[in-house]
TrEMBL record, chains A, B:
Organism the protein comes from: Thetidibacter halocola
Family: Belongs to the ectoine synthase family.
Gene (UniProt): ectC
Biological process terms in GO annotation: ectoine biosynthetic process
PANTHER family: L-ECTOINE SYNTHASE, PTHR39289
Keyword Kinase: no
Pfam families for this protein: Ectoine_synth
Broadest EC class assigned to this enzyme: lyase
InterPro entries for this protein: Ectoine_synth (IPR010462), RmlC-like_jellyroll (IPR014710), RmlC_Cupin_sf (IPR011051)
Role, per record: Catalyzes the circularization of gamma-N-acetyl-alpha,gamma-diaminobutyric acid (ADABA) to ectoine (1,4,5,6-tetrahydro-2-methyl-4-pyrimidine carboxylic acid), which is an excellent osmoprotectant.
Origin superkingdom: Bacteria
Catalysed reaction equations from the record: (2S)-4-acetamido-2-aminobutanoate = L-ectoine + H2O
Pathway: Amine and polyamine biosynthesis; ectoine biosynthesis; L-ectoine from L-aspartate 4-semialdehyde: step 3/3
Name assigned to this protein: L-ectoine synthase
Single Gene Ontology MF annotation: ectoine synthase activity
Length: 132, 132
């Protein structure tokens, strides 16, 4: 059994925290935990906007706190995000996420993120085999 | 892109809600969503206690609200659960979960739950191939 705490990791295990100026992701589970998925708590700054396209991963995102929206860049459709909303990028959907208020999100990735990925210019993470 | 809402599903899509008197699980993603994991919001009643052993699944659980504890029944070790705590049953660990206050948990299962599982006498879910 693995037991970890979001607040402890943010303070003491910064290898598991990836961030830029307007975004941070705390990785509670990574590929080497052997669960077959990774699990992240991601916080997006109020007023920020992010475009991602996880070409090599499926991702689900559950909103725990805050408000914003997600736009599917293929269809142009925008969905409101509030506590209780989940979106799942089952088509590796290119999307823009906007945080009207600070957003606290619980995210699952399959395949699991290894922890060394960075967002590339196209908004994707590299597939695991390119990170070895 | 799949977009679903916890509160809408609780009201309008009760096929996705599994519950007993002291426990309910709202399945936002199931096996047929094709993500390779399932994602559930599970609410455990204050004062309740639950013993599970997912022999055929890995599960991670993140506490969003409430307080309680988890006991690893192999080692006897008990861990406190509060908002920000995550536990992952990477050894299919038999465990007892106690809710001191009502617990709101975000849960991921691999392999994904199909939606027809019930807890068996031993606290497990059947493997997917027995549910066809």
């Amino acid at each position: 059994m693995i037991v970890r705490d979001f607040h402890d990791i943010q303070k003491n295990d910064t290898d598991r925290v990836v961030s830029d100026a307007k975004w941070s992701s705390t990785r509670l589970l990574l590929a080497n935990d052997g669960m077959g998925f990774s699990f992240h708590i991601t916080v997006l700054e109020a007023g920020s906007e992010h475009t991602f396209e996880y070409k090599n991963h499926f991702e689900s995102v559950y909103c725990m706190k805050g408000s914003g929206s997600i736009t599917d860049l293929k269809t142009g459709q925008t969905h409101r995000i509030k506590p209780g909303t989940m979106y799942a990028l089952d088509q590796h959907d290119r999307h823009t996420l906007k945080a009207d208020e600070e957003l606290f999100m619980a995210c699952c990735f399959n395949p699991p993120v290894t922890g060394t990925e960075v967002h590339r210019a196209d908004g994707s993470y590299a597939p695991a085999e390119e990170l070895a």
